[in-house]
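Sample pair:
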Amino acid sequence: MNIVRLFPIFVSAFLLAAHFLRARMYPLVAASLAFPFLLLIPRRWAARLVQVILVLGAIEWVRTACMLAMIRRASGHPWMRMAIILGAVALVTAASGLVFRFETLRDRYKLGDDETDLEQ
């Protein structure tokens, strides 16, 4: 059942890979497709690294949205719908890291409470 809970991470990874593929950034395509495999390692650091990568992916989506909005505004093309869509994708990518709030995933990746995190 954990695979269902991890589904948003896989979707975010594939969307990032498609984004980088369109830009012909092949090493980042490979990295985007590879990072979900970190989830096979049931360790705290693996879950935290995936969360950091998702936040970086969300930042990339926001950067891309801003860049494309400036280009489209300068050329007189509509840009608001594109900005809303990419903003939503950025939000979903960032929120994907919240799947580790599920108790089963917290147990699998040994993510204790904040107090126990500091003690370990």
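Residues 17 and 30 are 7 Å apart (CA to CA).
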